[in-house]
């Protein structure tokens, strides 16, 4: 997959690309609904014998359109989004740098410059996709704005149970720590990437050494608590239990940012400085303050057993 970054106003000519089928959306999470849109575009492109493409935007529009929003946590930061879209066998990924100038394009201007102007012959988008200034362009207005230069496919709502699968629904589950629900929305377990850093090394003194992990700040991290996780490092997956928290048993004051520490089962390697992935499987409990180290150790043993039982059941 070729990744093409576009800054507005772009200088791409229609003849720079062969005809394409393009999927449009922000695609944060690349959840099952997003995958349906992208897979539809890939299928149509193959049937027509042309290239498939996805157009997304970076940063999140709220950073540009809302003055009080300085930072957004993503379900899939841009690099993760690239990786997941590439797995869907897309030929081109267009990443448009979202600015206020770009946001002010009228719907017709957006279509002229970013669809017709890129030699797109078929558009695929979700039923609720909007484009142009203030989102005034919709899938109902697209035929008018197309100038008969392309046709399009509208992908209907994809639901799980009675709820529409959406980035909003996934964020809600994440905020509540319900990481086990995300498989039904994403089609995969939720993951975050980071680097193993030096911590206070207190875990090893009580028999539970941990990998203190600094997660990329672009990610949406589950709330404080204890979770069953898998941990990817040096090309291998390992099972473990993760604590997201402020260590109230040891510290009277909370840090601004909770620590993320993973106790990896049957593991004894020096992995400081290594890039790692945490795959979040299920919540175990909320964070607790214990009256003694002994009480804490007993609870960690219980947490570990819960996680091991989970993986034993899952792997059989």
CATH architecture assignment of the largest domain: 3-Layer(aba) Sandwich
Oligomer description: single chain
Radius of gyration: 23 Å
Quote the CATH topology of the largest domain.
Rossmann fold
Q: How much is the average pLDDT?
A: 93
Q: Return the structural class.
A: alpha/beta
Euclidean distance between termini CA atoms? 36 Å
What's the CATH class label of the largest domain? Answer: Alpha Beta
Q: Indicate the proportion of strand residues.
A: 25-35%
Order of helices and strands: EEHEHHEHHEEEHEEEHHEHEEEEEH
The number of domains: 2
Folded structure, characterized:
The chain has ten helices and 16 strands. With 316 residues, it is an alpha/beta fold. It has two domains: 2-163, HUPs (Rossmann fold); 189-315, Riboflavin kinase-like (Elongation Factor Tu (Ef-tu), domain 3). Helix 1 (32-48) links the parallel strand 2 and strand 3 (51-58). It is elongated, with a radius of gyration of 23 Å.
Name some characteristics of this structure.
Rossmann fold, single chain, alpha/beta, FAD, EC 2.7.1.26, 6-stranded antiparallel β-barrel, 28% helix, 316 residues, 6-stranded parallel β-sheet, elongated, Elongation Factor Tu (Ef-tu), domain 3, riboflavin kinase activity
